[in-house]
Amino acid sequence: MSFIDTLPKAELHVHLEGTLEPDEMFRLAARNGLVLPWESTEALRAEYSFTGLEHFLRLYFEGCKVLCRREDFYDLTAAYLRRAASQGVRRAEMFFGPQSFLERGIPAAEQLGGITDAIADASTDLGIDGALIITAQRHRTEAAALELLEAVRSFQDSILGVGLGSAEAGNPPSKFTRYFAAARAQGYRLTCHAGEEGPPAYIREALDLCHVERIDHGYTAAQDPDLVSRLADEAIPLTMCPLSNLRLQVTDDLTTYPIVDFMKAGVVVTVNSDDPPYFGGYLNENYTALEQQLGLGAEKLTTLARNSFLASFADQGQIDQAL
Ligand code: HPA
Ligand code: ZN
């Protein structure tokens, strides 16, 4: 076991639908009587060469179609939590976007019931602490995002927070101010994808207009030193995803990845996997890529792992215990 394997970590930016492994996609398709547009897992994997976020999202939404029944959502979540626990992940705050499934007539109870059963079983069996963050899709309207909050309202006790994902360019956080205000009024923790492909101004909007507590990605903050200082001063964490940023051509090369600059500026940066099979690695592969490409040693890797607990939405007592 390597140093990274044994480090206790939290994962704060992983999309459950994006953890679907190709062989599992084929198994679920067969179980649900569906035919996939690819002949084999090899043919599917050959598609994992992305020009950018929207290209990836087309494949990601196609993969979502095999998730139909409560046991599919259970199996998906259970498999991710098993893999995460084996990598030293103690807490996982997982994104899930019900709109893909609600529009196909799959009730929220089937989706969230399967996920929360798997979280409960993994807590008992593996000791991993899982939590759910519901995301709205920003290519849809704000009215649809508000309907989503209503659709999941009766499951509120099982939901930790609310976020915003999908195609960023042209869909700024300012389009979703009422959604975030409603979520805040209902007691959810708030986070928002911003600064993946969008400009630093989108990160500012997420903070100033949507009042989110964390920024998912935040990569383009590197273009705006005043914003970096602000993230440090206000202790707004970034949930960065190095292999995702590499595979979606957000960054050309991890040797210039700005995570060390952010750490030096005092930002609480964290490492995460986003959509692991699509981007070539789970959490530890992301840490390892930074270790190798940026030459990070044990001290910086430990800081990143500690940051993941500091940035989590766990109770303070749980965070203190993890540290
Ligand atoms: N960005 C936005 N939406 C997403 C992502 C991402 O990296 N992954 C899954 N949905
Ligand atoms: Zn993401």
UniProtKB/TrEMBL annotation:
What residues does the Adenosine deaminase domain cover?
Answer: 8-323
Q: Where is this site: Important for catalytic activity?
A: H217
Carries keyword Magnesium? no
- The answer to whether keyword Membrane applies is no
* Binding locations of substrate: D275
Check the UniProt entry and state the signal peptide residues, or none.
Answer: none
What's the cofactor?
Answer: Zn(2+)
Could you identify this protein by its name? Adenine deaminase
Recorded source organism is Amycolatopsis ultiminotia
